[in-house]
Specification:
With about 200 residues, this protein is of the alpha+beta class. Helix content is about 20%, strand content about 50%. The chain has three helices and 13 strands. InterPro entries: Lipid/polyisoprenoid-bd_YceI, TTHA0802/YceI-like_sf.
Length: about 200
């Protein structure tokens, strides 16, 4: 019985020590130069819509860049959001049709909430991020292959995710009385610079 109590006491002490020495969470921001965009096709030409505004709420243990680049996971939370109204397609008509297709008036934002990630071995450091992507009022779990590299003191995260618009309840836009049709598959791409 004394041995069991002794082991419990030691285990409790280790847990308390671990909690006391755990790395504190730090706020991480997106550095200037961070980008997020959609690539797609139509019966006429390919197109790109860029998010002119990206908002983020990111908290992680200190030293996240070194940890991830060395293949070590750290605790943290991440939410990225951008307003549909700030999608810029370099074409006023396309802007209008894209915002209408995404029902911007009813669902003004597209958001991604991280639920976890895995790191793979190799150089450059790669992995997969998992989370919930909400668009057009519908949320789906997604897994996105990513690459991590160091860039000017920041952690650069790049990746892309093909999406079928109809799976999200989005009707691909049609222009010129239906003679120009946007393809159902769009690819979300991102190049984010995370810095303390």
């Amino acid at each position: 019985m004394r041995v069991r109590i002794s082991h419990l006491t030691i285990a409790s002490a280790v847990l308390l020590l671990t909690a006391a020495t755990a790395s504190p969470m730090e706020r991480i921001t997106l550095a200037p130069g961070s980008r997020l965009w959609f690539d797609g096709t139509s019966t006429l030409r390919s197109w790109t819509c860029t998010a002119d505004k990206i908002e983020s709420k990111i908290d992680a243990e200190s030293g996240v860049a070194d940890a991830v680049l060395n293949g070590r996971k750290v605790a943290g939370t991440l939410e990225v959001e951008f307003p549909v109204e700030k999608l810029e397609c370099k074409n006023g008509t396309m802007n209008e049709h894209m915002r209408k297709a995404l029902v911007a008036a009813k669902h003004p934002d597209i958001t991604f909430n991280l639920s976890g990630y895995d790191l793979s071995k190799g150089t450059p450091q790669g992995g997969t991020v998992q989370g919930s992507l909400t668009m057009n009022g519908q949320s789906h779990q997604v897994a996105v292959p990513v690459q991590f590299v160091r860039a000017d003191g920041a952690l650069r995260v790049t990746g892309k995710l093909p999406l079928n618009m109809t799976e999200w309840g989005v009707k691909p836009p049609k222009l010129m009385m239906g003679t120009i049709k946007v393809g159902n598959v769009v690819t979300v791409q991102f190049d984010l610079l995370l810095q303390h």
